[in-house]
Design brief:
Layout lengths: L12 H16 L12 E6 L5 H12 L3 E5 L13 H9 L4 E6 L4 H8 L4 E6 L5 H15 L6 E5 L6 H10 L6 E5 L8 H9 L4 E5 L2 H4 L5 E4 L10 H7 L18 E3 L20 H19 L4
Parallel strand pairs: 1-2, 1-3, 3-4, 5-6, 5-8, 6-7, 8-9
Helix pairs in contact: 1-5, 1-10, 2-10, 3-4, 5-6, 5-10
Bound molecules: N-carbamoyl-L-aspartate.
The site of N-carbamoyl-L-aspartate has 11 residues, from α2 and α6.
């Protein structure tokens, strides 16, 4: 049975633990994995801009000894001629062994997974989900903190359109005693379905606030996000909200000494570059970990031993 990864909850907690363990083993023993996907092909079908996600998928496949094909913009694919996502998925199933797809429409990778005869990985669908960023984030948290249970995690910025936020909240809702602090302008609060179907339904201890300074001293993890310009209906709202939160060294004064500052990137203005040299800045480590956890995921979905 082919398996796809559309939503982070498609993976059981035990499977996530296993992927984290494999990623840690790849970091420790990369040579062991250099031939695991020899002869296999990954297709990256990106209908939306990307730097890290696409390149980390491609680097992951190369480091497993496999090959990569694909496109990085809708305009250079037959989508520009009006081809459906299903037909594209059926076509690519003839040429590749696994697909990583990013699409501006929520649900497009799911539709592709129904049509494809090979596994499909959701590499971001609109303002909805981004499960492989979540695997990246969980690997980062577990390496930095040695655990995921019992942490207080603050999400700050665009919690409405930020798909990485939605997926990570879903994943965290299955760990023990995790506390979640949602910091955003009122207009950019997490969607109602995340509040009701994820946080409330699972009895997660959470609070919503607009005040980063007040929330900061209690946090173990601060997950900053970019205001998602491309999902706004008008430019004025974006301009008004884009600089709602800017993290600077002065603002970190009351933060924990072992705070872990994360960001899925790209950063626009939310974290001052002066913070990059602070030992608490973890966002570039996160970028690197993303490659290893995608190697683990590709092997799992291709059922490579
Ligand atoms: C994120 C995304 O595409 O959702 N980037 C990423 O994949 N690391 C975050 C963002 O674009 O703001």
């Amino acid at each position: 049975m082919k398996r796809s990864l559309i939503d982070i909850l498609d993976l059981s907690p035990a499977e996530i633990d296993e992927l984290i363990a494999t990623a840690n083993d790849i970091i420790a023993n990369p040579a062991k994995y250099a031939e695991k996907c020899r002869g296999k092909k990954l297709a990256t079908l990106f209908f939306e801009p990307s730097t890290r996600t696409r390149l980390s998928f491609e680097a992951a496949m190369y480091e497993l000894g496999g090959n990569v094909l694909g496109f990085s913009e809708a305009q250079s694919s037959s989508a520009a001629k009006g081809e459906s996502v299903s037909d594209t998925a059926k076509t690519v199933s003839c040429y590749a062994d696994i697909i990583a797809m990013r699409h501006p429409k929520e649900g497009a990778p799911f539709v592709a997974s129904r049509a494809a005869s090979i596994p499909v990985i959701n590499a971001g669908d609109g303002g909805h989900n981004h499960p492989t960023q979540t695997l990246t984030d969980l690997l980062t948290i577990s390496r930095e903190k040695g655990r995921i249970d019992g942490l207080t995690v603050g999400f700050c910025g665009d919690l409405k359109f930020g798909r990485t936020v939605h997926s990570l909240i879903g994943a965290l809702s299955r760990y023990k005693n995790v506390k979640i602090v949602l910091i955003s302008p009122t207009e950019l609060k997490v969607p109602e379905y995340v509040l009701q179907e994820v946080l409330e339904k699972n009895g997660i201890d959470f609070e919503q606030t607009t005040d980063l300074q007040k929330a900061l001293p209690n946090l173990d993890i601060l997950y900053m996000t970019r205001v998602q310009r491309e999902r706004f209906f008008n430019e004025e709202d974006y301009l008004r909200l884009k600089d709602s939160y800017i993290l600077t060294p002065a603002k970190l004064k009351n933060a924990k000494q072992d705070l872990c500052i994360m960001h899925p990137l790209p950063r626009v203005n939310e974290i001052s570059v002066e913070i990059d040299d602070d030992p608490r800045a973890c966002y570039f480590k996160q970028v690197l970990y993303g490659k290893y956890v995608r190697m683990a995921l590709i092997m799992k979905l291709l059922e490579v031993e």
